[in-house]
Amino acid sequence: MIPGPGEALVRCHAAAICTAERRVFSGHMKYYPMIGGHEFTGTVERVDGLETDLEPGDRVAIDASTRCGRCYYCVKGRNNQCVKMFEFRRDYDYYQMGGGFGEFVALRPGQMIRLADHVDLEEASVLEPLACCIHSLKRAQIRFGETVLVIGAGTMGGMHVMLAKLAGASVIVSDIDPVRLVQAAQLGADRAVNPETEDLVAVVKDLTAGRGADGVIVAAGSRRAGEQALQCVGRTGRLVFYASLHPPGMLDLDWNRVHYEEIMITGTEGHTDRDFHEAAALLSNGSISVRPLISRVIALEDLPAELGSRPAGETQRVVVRL
Ligand SMILES: [Zn+2]
Ligand SMILES: [Zn+2]
């Protein structure tokens, strides 16, 4: 690995496995050959002649996004929507999705954030999804004392729970998996609901004096989750579709409810560079610990077996130590 002009060389240290890498491995996303690992940390190896404050040995979180800085959305400050975001580099003879599963990676200094000494590099490998959840909660425009409903208590649901609590909200979480519900409660959820055994809409209404939730995050990719979200969102509420839906589908919408009750419905995609900086700051200043969301740390040799399996009931991130 030889860094190009304007690039530093980084030694990869830990990389979390995201759904995207699992989709490539299973053949649902066809990009071959590929080096994955887009949620990762490392240490700076070389910064030869670069204008940067980074020094060799610095421990860094890596924002693997490739933003152009010039397109309509980048200029508007919405660089999570950069039109070049999903363009792969053409100078490699393989696809690189982050590249954190490799030994070294070449990066622009702006893609790295120096971490405080006490921050664990394995824990910090999940900063990228944390940044995505920060972006999502901003879309939900949560205010102190509001009630947030998080539908889906996987890794992403769990991060939303922690961040919503940090933002001063009362948090209800819904999931059909009892193990996930226990974990969500441990992460700070005020009320955990299994919609298969309880009436979710009734619980939400009960806890909000009949109003419905101020913010609803759909962190589960099912039509049923979307329908429940529409039923649970209250007057002036904001509904965020965090998860994508596969295969794609439609939802019925009550036009007049959206009109009269001023309900805002939006999605969320990735994170801006600012969201990533905020995620790193939350970890560095100790406001949040994402360690509970990492179930296992495995060796690189065990990566193929891990990618080939989908452990049942496991809701957290698996991190590869390099
Ligand atoms: Zn990811
Ligand atoms: Zn752009």
Describe this structure in words.
This protein is of the alpha/beta class. Helices cover 27% and strands 24% of the residues. The chain is built from ten helices and 15 strands. Strands 1, 3, 4, 6, 7, 14 and 15 form a seven-stranded mixed beta sheet that branches. It has a six-stranded parallel beta sheet with strand order 10-9-8-11-12-13, sandwiched between helices. A two-stranded parallel sheet has the order 2-5. α5 links the parallel β9 (170-174) and β10 (191-193). α3 packs across α9. The two termini are 16 Å apart. The model has no long low-confidence stretch (mean pLDDT 94). Residues 18, 20, 38-39, 128-129 line the site of one zinc ion.
Write the layout of secondary structure elements.
Blueprint: E1 8-16, H1 19-26, E2 34-35, E3 39-46, E4 59-63, H2 72-75, E5 95-96, E6 104-107, E7 112-114, H3 127-139, E8 147-151, H4 155-166, E9 170-174, H5 178-186, E10 191-193, H6 200-207, E11 213-218, H7 223-232, E12 233-241, H8 255-260, E13 264-267, H9 273-284, E14 294-299, H10 303-308, E15 317-321
Parallel strand pairs: 2-5, 8-9, 8-11, 9-10, 11-12, 12-13, 14-15
Antiparallel strand pairs: 1-3, 1-6, 1-15, 3-4, 4-7
